[in-house]
Amino acid sequence: MLGYIWQYLYSSLFRLWLKWFLRQITGKCELQRICDGYRQGGARTSRAEYSLECSKSMTLRTAIDVEESGLEQRVTAIMAEKRIRSEKDPMFKTNLKVCLLQINGYRKLYLHVEDLRKQVFESEKKEHEELLLKLWDLLMPSVKLQSRITKQWGDIGFQGDDPKTDFRGMGMLGLTNLVFFSERYTELSRQVLSHANHPKLGYSYAIVGINLTEMAYSLLKSGALKPHFYNTVAGSPSLEHFHQLYCYLAYEFDKFWIEEEPASIMEFNLYRERFHEKVKMLLGEPDVSLSLKLMS
User: Fold this and answer.
1) Phi-psi category of residue 41: left, alpha or beta, with phi > 0 → left and psi -120 to 50 → alpha
2) How far is it, in rounded angstroms, from Cα 204 to Cα 184?
3) Cα–Cα dist 137/143, whole Å
4) pTM for the whole thing?
5) FRET label pair with 228: which of 38, 199, 247, 270, CA 20 to 30 Å apart?
6) What are phi and psi of 40, to 5 degrees?
7) Residue 61 CB-density burial (10 A; 0-12 exposed, 13-18 middle, 19+ buried)
């Protein structure tokens, strides 16, 4: 209860007074102080996003949901409303535009990912079938599928004879992630598959991969991935950036699993949660960048 009272008093009274006081002292509005006081990245963009969300000005508050084509005009409108002159603060316009590109880009990325997740895998669609067969060819180049529906799918970690049933939760997003990792990092994905097929420490490669897609999706949806994308993408993040984040999770989970040496696959949920907590802890660091770094 005390926390809610403090939050209300801070946002409705103290914060407004502090903003007014600092403007009198510095001659700059809150957005100017943020853009001047922090280098480009998660700290600056996150603070700018919070400032815009809390603003009483409709011009500022709705800036976090503007199409890229309208950003230039919106930044100009913000500068006019806040009486910011380019000759006195020449970098403000550029810095704020980058922040808005990242903020709005993150929202757009989530919608793109959500659309892909909602796409059901359909065997009748040629492009869906081709993508699934491509996954097999990338991971098992020297082994030919005996038929489309076969127990061989278990060799790359699917549960049944027909992988389409395993994509229900994450739809085409799960398959797209698996194929991206296998295509972009072919040798690495085969190495991870060999670990997954270990007689003692093995796990279901494809099923775990889809599970990691769900993890990446939930982190994106909650906003937890904002610091990562704000630090690593100097503009609007794309679907490829999300796929790269998935590759990081796939590689790091494999390392984590091997290092932890679980007694059996029955402990997967426990170790999955431990890994999830580890990732969330990393995302709490201001300079976080969950980029795949391979040993040379």
Assistant:
1) left
2) 21
3) 8
4) 0.91
5) 270
6) -60, 135
7) middle
